[in-house]
From TrEMBL:
Keywords: ATP-binding, Kinase, Nucleotide-binding, Serine/threonine-protein kinase, Transferase. This is Serine/threonine-protein kinase-like protein At5g23170. Residues 16-303 form the Protein kinase domain. SUPFAM superfamilies: Protein kinase-like (PK-like). Belongs to the protein kinase superfamily. It comes from Nicotiana sylvestris. It comes from the Eukaryota. ATP binds at K45. The keyword Lipoprotein does not apply.
Length: 371
């Protein structure tokens, strides 16, 4: 783990100028820094509130978790730390700089909303980020999956950020047994997260589970598809989960979709599959929620390929339609031929019967004449 000189960070951010502030949250602020060699970095600084009470636990926790992870293309890259010794050893996180904002901005602030294939791509990239965290040994629960914590790099690839609330499970136990080792080990850490995304079953420390992240991901999926805020007091129901699940139960899936964007017919199947996944994720029964591995596998099978080659799928659908029509014409031709043959045979039989009857009448009349 690289340690950056604090003085260089001051210079890179113009002494942490407000003009360099690019992000702000409850736990800290993020500044854009330009190093002497021209490299652009993001610097996370503890919030003033936490500094006053000298609570550096969240930043230290994030350093601990990020430094233990191998580099992953779906997680914001951790570059190192820095310490300000003159301010009671204040710690700073140095991360890669992602220039294209957050998913929240893409969904809610932009005039031109993202196209459907892009939404599907973002969903699978976030799912793979969560999969990476859950597959580490022991598993890492992010606890704060939301649209403001999904950032875009220069190529508009999505990356999951902000592991300040993340926790390691002491083992991979997923049951609700309060006596299990995983529950005992996390018994001192209070539930945390963001209202709207927070799993309602996560009511006490012993309820910590990777399935908490699955619920949050389900909410995020609904937000991606609808561009509706997860909690909107101007609408009824207020919660995106209550609103969307009601529509899905009534078979009105496509009414959830962002009204600003037309849904092309070749994307309908993909969108419905995403909504079905979201519904399973936000289930009130934690045990019925799918694992992130199941979600990624399903998305790769029914979402990634159709959206990756939409033109190919259009051509494929047209080819299948032509084959179906050709088959129908062939079947109709066979039926017509059969009917024609049957009618011809029937007509011949009738004519034959008529000939026999005519002959029989002639014979009877001849006999009468002879008599």
């Amino acid at each position: 783990m690289k340690v950056f000189e604090y003085e260089k960070l001051e210079k890179a951010t113009e002494n942490f100028s407000k003009s360099r502030l690019i992000g702000k949250g409850s736990h800290g602020c993020v500044y854009k820094g330009i190093l002497e060699d021209g490299k652009i970095i993001a610097i996370k600084k503890q919030s003033l509130g936490l500094q006053k009470i000298q609570d550096y636990s969240k930043l230290e926790n994030e350093v601990s978790i990020l430094s233990s992870l191998s580099e992953n293309s779906f997680i914001v890259n951790f570059l190192g730390t820095s310490n300000n010794n003159s301010a009671k050893n204040e710690t700073f996180l140095i991360m890669e700089y992602l220039p294209n904002g957050t998913l929240h901005e893409m969904l809610h602030a932009k005039i031109v909303p993202p196209p459907w294939p892009k939404r599907a791509q973002v969903a699978i990239q976030v799912a793979k980020a969560i999969e990476f965290l859950h597959q580490t040994k022991p598993s890492i629960v992010h606890r704060d999956i939301k649209s403001t914590n999904v950032l875009f790099d220069s190529n508009w690839n999505a990356k999951l950020a902000d592991l300040g609330l993340a926790l390691r499970m002491k083992n991979d136990c997923e049951d609700d047994d309060p006596c299990s080792p995983s529950h005992r080990s996390n018994s001192v850490t209070r539930p945390a997260g963001t209202i709207g995304y927070l799993d309602p079953s996560y009511t006490k420390p012993s309820k910590l589970s990777t399935k908490n992240d699955i619920f949050s991901f389900g909410v995020l999926l609904l937000e991606i598809m609808s561009s509706r805020k997860v909690i909107d007091v101007s609408k009824s129901p207020v919660s995106i989960v209550d609103w969307a699940t009601t529509l899905i139960k009534e078979g009105r899936d496509l009414e959830i979709c962002d009204k600003r964007m037309h849904v092309p017919w070749y994307m309908e199947g993909t969108i419905k599959n995403m909504l079905r996944i979201a519904t399973r994720c936000v289930s009130t029964k934690k045990i019925t929620r799918p694992s992130i591995q199941e979600i990624v596998m399903e998305m790769e099978n029914v979402i990634v390929e159709p959206t990756k080659y939409p033109l190919w799928n259009i051509l494929r659908s047209l080819t299948l339609l032509k084959r179906k029509r050709k088959r129908c014409r062939k079947d109709c031709s066979i039926i017509t031929t059969t009917v024609t043959k049957t009618c011809a045979q029937h007509e011949g039989k009738v004519q034959k019967d008529m000939s026999r009857r005519t002959l029989l009448i002639r014979e009877i009349l001849a006999d009468k004449v002879m008599q």
